Amino acid sequence: MVLTLYKMDASPPVRAVYMVIEALSIPNVKYVDVDLLAEDHLKEEFLKLNPQHTIPMLTDDKFVIWDSHAIATYLLNKYGKGSSYYPEDPEKRALIEMRLHFDSGILYPALRENDEPIFFWGETTFKPEGLAKIKSAYDFTEKFLSDSPWIAGDDVTVADMSCVATIGSLDALLPINEKEYPKITSWLKRCSELDFYQRGNNVKGLLEFKALLKQYLSRGKE
C-alpha cells in the first residue's frame, strides 16, 4: 500500500502534515501536486475523492481522508505508537487536541480571512478587522506559552507542528513583535531548530508562501 498526499507546498496545513511525516520518518510517500491557484482542486477527478475540495488530502489504499489535523493524528496512530508527539496519556492528549482545535478554529481562520482575498479575490491590502483577528490569535498563543516551552506542555507534540505551520505564515501577514510577544518569538526559534521543521516546513513551503504573498500583494503597486 502506498500513502499518497495531495498537496501544495505553500499551504500551511500541508506543511503541518509534512512535519509529521518527517518526524515519524514515514517512507515511500507519494506526493501529488494540487495547484489551488490554478483551481486543480475543483477538477472532477479531485472532487470525486474530496467533495470539500481541500488540501491536504491523503489516500491510504482505498481509505481517503482530508483535513490536516485528521491526517496528522491518523498517521501518528498508525505509524507513531507510543510517540511523545501524540502521547496516549488522556490528559496530555486532551491538551494536544485542544491546541489542534485552536489551530483549526482560531489560527487558521485568521489566516484564511486575510490571505484568501489576496490570493483569490484580487485584493491587494489587508483589512484592519482581519489583522485584529491575527493579533487576537497571537495574544492567546502568548498566554498558552507562558507556563511551558511548547504549545501543549513540556514536550514538543503534533500541536506544535500544526500551530507553527500556521503562525509562521501569519507572521508573513502581520509580523510578530518580539517585545510584545517574547514567548512566541522564543517558541518559533525553538521550532525552527528542529529537524522535522527544517525539512517539512521551511524547505517545503514557508518560503514559497511568503514569495507568493509578496507577489500577489505587489499587484496593487503596478
TrEMBL record:
The gene is 692684. Keywords: Transferase. Pfam families: GST_C, GST_N_3. Signal peptide: none annotated. One of its GO terms (biological process) is glutathione metabolic process. InterPro entries: Glutathione-S-Trfase_C-like, Glutathione-S-Trfase_C_sf, Glutathione_S-Trfase, Glutathione_S-Trfase_N, GST_C, Thioredoxin-like_sf. One of its GO terms (molecular function) is glutathione transferase activity. This is Glutathione S-transferase 1. Gene3D superfamilies: 1.20.1050.10, Glutaredoxin. Homodimer. Residues 89-213 form the GST C-terminal domain. PANTHER family: GLUTATHIONE S TRANSFERASE D10, ISOFORM A-RELATED. Residues 1-83 form the GST N-terminal domain.
